Amino acid sequence: MADSSQGELEKLAPLPTSEKVKSPAPALEYPTMALLFTGRARSALSIFSIFALLSVVLFGAIATASPGGKLHKFQKLADADRQSYLIGVGKADITGPVVEIGFAGYANLDQTGSGLRQRLYSRAFIIADKNNPSDRFVYLVLDTQSGDTAMRNGLLDGLKALGSDYAVYGQNNIALTGTHSHSGPGAWFNYLLPQITSLGWSQQSYQAIVNGAVLSVQRAHESLQEGYLDVGTTDIPDGAINRSLWAYLNNPEEERAQYDAETDITMTLLRFQRASDGKNIGVLSWFPVHGTSLLGNNTHAAGDNKGVAAWLFESAMKNDATAADGFVAGFSQANVGDTTPNVLGAWCDDGSGQQCSLENSTCADGKSQSCHGRGPEFQALDLGAKSCYEMGRRQFAGAQTIYDNLKSSTTSVSGSTVKAFHFFQDMRYFNFTLPDGTKAQTCPAALGFSFAAGTSDWPGAFDFVQGDSGAPNNPFWSLVGGLLKAPGPQQVACQQPKPVLLDVGEISTPYAWTPNIVDIQVLRVGQLVIIVSPSEATTMAGRRWKAAVAKEAATFLDEDPVVVLGGPANSYSHYCATPEEYDIQRYEGASTLFGRNELNAYINLTVSNLHYLQPGSTGTPSQGVLPPDNRKNMISFITDVVQDNAPLGKSFGNVLVQPNLTYNIGDVVNVTFVGANPRNNLRQEQTFAAIEQQGSGGTWTQVRDDSDWFLVYTWRRTNFILGQSEVDITWETYGNAQPGTYRVKYYGDSKALFGGVSSFVGTSNSFTLK
Ligand SMILES: *[C@@H]1O[C@H](CO)[C@@H](O)[C@H](O)[C@H]1NC(C)=O
Ligand SMILES: *[C@@H]1O[C@H](CO)[C@@H](O)[C@H](O)[C@H]1NC(C)=O
Ligand SMILES: *[C@@H]1O[C@H](CO)[C@@H](O)[C@H](O)[C@H]1NC(C)=O
Ligand SMILES: *[C@@H]1O[C@H](CO)[C@@H](O)[C@H](O)[C@H]1NC(C)=O
Ligand SMILES: *[C@@H]1O[C@H](CO)[C@@H](O)[C@H](O)[C@H]1NC(C)=O
Ligand SMILES: *[C@@H]1O[C@H](CO)[C@@H](O)[C@H](O)[C@H]1NC(C)=O
Ligand SMILES: CC(=O)N[C@H]1CO[C@H](CO)[C@@H](O)[C@@H]1O
């Protein structure tokens, strides 16, 4: 294994706890989803009868590269020499049920929503060939854990329902990516495994995302106009570290030596500029860093660090003369697999003051539970909120640097060709040939033992141990846990050297647990080539994949190709590690579903079909066998809202705790109302919470809403039987507040036991902020 890296291990010195991080701690593993498993699992190697708690990490990625790694050619062209396209951008609210639904990402059963810090959005970007407008694609960036087959089918259905104008969008040209936030409502996945910790499927959660995604495409479509595309890059050296360095170090030394860092630190940004007046209508960037700044015990929904970055950028553009109204900033995920925003490294919260082990991310007790990654503001003890803001700010600052540089020197996207290809590939025993002529094969999906341990972004709730580790309290798992089967000899051999813990690809009762059939998709406009990855490619996996695609693209492009990788997209397919990383079987390798050759298969499938992106190429690959559409079969233990009631003598929206008369900037304003369940009405494109400011004439104007990071909505049930609840609206005035006279508004909706839903408004007393 990686004995040669022992030296590096010894060199790791304890980190100073200062804010500015230059060389963060070694990468550790961070678990994202902890699944509770009980039942009997047998493997060929060992038999264990168990109740074991597994943690599953769901992470995703996008990355960027030209063959040389960076863009060097900057030139300013006159408009007449610039290639123009049809371009459109659109944004819509996808915020689902923010309370009483398990969050998607960490697979932590206890991480059930209790409110909203920042609304979630879908941002859509359409690019079409001006002369042949049916050659187009739409790239969506959703503030979700990933793209997914169920929501993609929902989006396809929704666009179809919009009529013939939208018939131009279909399987081939829709790329549905998630930012990989781990702090949004879950229960919308097409497959069973990620549903376990959300207690199944929520139609409301699913529909909220689909409706917003459709609306964002509609808005982008309606805004289509002639415009230009320019691309730029910058490095964000403090934007992430590698959390699985031990596995990364198993990649060949010569290969690692080609790169400055153990994660891809280059952000690539595409600027959308309309021709009519030269104003910019949007930007779309790619940068890899996990959406795990908010911790696995945060229960307020938010778009994590990329949600912050997008909000900061869009806010800045409201006062920028170069930006058009309705400017949309998409911060897409890249080769995210082994990256973490916890840039101060992973530490043992066991009083030892030690970093977790490089090899296994364990602490002195040999377990991973006390190993936690630290964000730049970890000392705030605020469930990651300040660290999240800071990691978002760093990405915003990087994007702004590129945006500013593009004002004076640009690399235009050129060449009229806009193309996309997409097909479904069944990964079960897919045979292909490696570039050196060797035969290779992928396998039915399976997860290895380290999947259960989670990562240093959030360890598994229990270490996976052989033997009884206590009965789980999960009705969903009680229903399905017994269905797991031991893998047969063919699967065991195929998955080598992964010891199979969960043979998820060979169970389809009650429906498929993970994808075996994945989306293979690549998009192209001019020299920009976008690999759309269903899996969370690790840093090196992304680099290899981008380099292989760039090499092939260079055979038919006039310009140097600029290749980015976006994901996790279309069908969430866990991880994609390099074969060398796979051999180490840390979390990312254990979560590489289709075996040691997964990356090579993805490379084979994309490179072999790249000719579909050539100018003049007609047709598309055969779509392949469609993945199962489980939307009609879903199981759920999620209960609906029964009723809401106000306490005796009170009404919904009454203020229970008024604000103080005066505050100083920096204080936290906290007002409590008689509340009702926000699942009664998601108030998409509206708000639950608002701050109003009093003008000189005494009139009140709304100045903050749910889109603001520093305005937080919290819902709390106070009496289950009577359906009573309270809502706190909290304004963190250290963020972006100005002196003035303000009041707090709460917009809610209550459900009668036998009757409909009625809306109400609560208004606090006014207060002065000095
Ligand atoms: C949340 O998790 C972090 C990391 O384990 C821990 O330090 C913190 O105490 C937890 N906070 C709460 C309120 O449970
Ligand atoms: C890491 O785990 C492996 C497998 O359990 C074990 O052999 C090794 O000693 C562990 N290493 C450390 C540093 O704990
Ligand atoms: C791949 O090759 C193996 C060995 O020849 C064969 O058993 C398997 O069926 C092939 N896979 C497919 C999908 O045809
Ligand atoms: C992919 O594998 C197929 C089947 O073995 C082979 O014919 C093809 O050349 C490979 N493509 C690439 C780009 O390596
Ligand atoms: C609001 O007033 C209460 C009661 O006087 C006081 O305890 C609290 O510190 C005040 N809050 C702020 C943020 O000033
Ligand atoms: C706001 O007030 C409520 C009710 O008094 C309290 O439960 C909650 O912890 C407070 N929140 C903050 C952020 O201070
Ligand atoms: C960006 C990056 O890769 N960061 C860190 C990865 O881990 C090594 C070893 O701890 C650090 O030196 C890098 O700075």
Automatic annotation (TrEMBL):
EC number annotated for this UniProt entry: 3.5.1.23
Domain Neutral/alkaline non-lysosomal ceramidase N-terminal: 85-604
UniProt KW Transferase keyword: no
Assigned GO CC terms: extracellular region; membrane
Pfam families, A to Z: Ceramidase_alk (PF04734), Ceramidse_alk_C (PF17048)
Chain sites annotated for binding Zn(2+): 180, 290, 536, 575
InterPro entries: Ceramidase_alk, NCDase_C_sf, NEUT/ALK_ceramidase_C, NEUT/ALK_ceramidase_N
Annotated Neutral/alkaline non-lysosomal ceramidase C-terminal domain residues: 608-769
Segments passing through the bilayer: 43-63
Keywords, ordered alphabetically: Hydrolase, Lipid metabolism, Membrane, Metal-binding, Sphingolipid metabolism, Transmembrane, Transmembrane helix, Zinc
Cofactor info, note text: Binds 1 zinc ion per subunit.
GO molecular function, one term: N-acylsphingosine amidohydrolase activity
Cofactors: Zn(2+)
Residue numbers spanned by region Disordered: 1-21
Keyword Phosphoprotein assigned: no
GO biological process, one term: ceramide catabolic process
Catalytic activities: an N-acylsphing-4-enine + H2O = sphing-4-enine + a fatty acid
Family, similarity comment: Belongs to the neutral ceramidase family.
Protein name per its UniProtKB record: Neutral ceramidase
Organism per entry: Trichoderma guizhouense
